[in-house]
């Protein structure tokens, strides 16, 4: 099963972040093939929202929704099931400093 894991900041971390911790999480997962790709994202203030209304492309600078949580990055995991994804997410450094949101990839239905 493939999961998108969003790395989300939190206003009340359990402990301070240590940037070196991420390599200890990433390296074994990359070596095992459980982590397909992952990266950090630019701040939401640098995002662009795109929509089409009345046949016109409309863009808005910055994040669409006002929220106290911010998506900092993502990882795509290829694991046996949700339990394995949860176990992997629980070892991510941001599990102590923020939160991780797991979403399974939905089957692509070409008839829809």
TrEMBL record:
InterPro entries found in the cross-reference section: Dimeric_a/b-barrel, YCII
YCII-related domain mapped to chain residues: 25-108
Highest taxon above the source species: Bacteria
SUPFAM superfamilies from the UniProt entry: Dimeric alpha+beta barrel
PANTHER family, per the entry: BLL7171 PROTEIN (PTHR35174:SF3), BLL7171 PROTEIN-RELATED (PTHR35174)
Family listed: Belongs to the YciI family.
Name of the protein in question: YCII-related domain-containing protein
């Amino acid at each position: 099963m493939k999961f998108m894991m969003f790395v989300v900041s939190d206003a009340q971390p359990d402990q301070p972040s240590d940037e070196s911790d991420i390599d200890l999480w990433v390296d074994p997962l990359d070596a095992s093939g459980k982590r397909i790709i992952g990266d950090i994202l630019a701040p939401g203030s640098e995002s662009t929202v795109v929509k089409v209304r009345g046949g016109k492309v409309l863009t808005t600078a910055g994040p669409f929704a006002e929220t106290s949580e911010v998506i900092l990055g993502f990882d795509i995991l290829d694991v046996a099931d949700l339990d394995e994804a949860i176990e992997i997410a629980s070892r991510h450094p941001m599990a102590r400093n923020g939160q991780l949101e797991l979403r399974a990839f939905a089957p692509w239905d070409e008839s829809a």
